[in-house]
Amino acid sequence: MTNDDVPTAVVLLGHGSRAPEARQYFLDLAAAVRGPSGSDFVEAAFLELCGPSFPETVAACVARGARRIAVVPVFLHPGRHLQRDVPRLVAEARATHPGVDVILAPHLGAHPAVTPLVADLVRAALTPPTN
Known about the structure:
Blueprint: E1 8-14, H1 20-37, E2 42-46, H2 54-63, E3 68-73, H3 80-96, E4 101-104, H4 114-126
Parallel strand pairs: 1-2, 1-3, 3-4
């Protein structure tokens, strides 16, 4: 819940994969961020290739009492899915659940911590392994 006591859910939206381990990794990510994010109402949804789908997850959140849903796209690049598909899905969710405020948050790649994180990965890759 947020400070103003509106029941708020967070939906982490990922691309989706046919690989079961990739799907499970993303579901585990949603579970892992619940505590550190300050919200126990964090759920995962997938754009395609596996479930739960975004509409299914939104409906489940509404059924649990969410009156606000913050959609966090876990995408690095603002490609076609972020430009067209995600806004369309958010608009459809707003139309399907008119009493619920569905908010589209910035995508993962837009976060300022991404560049330093990638730089750390590059530094680690350039560091010779020690035996």
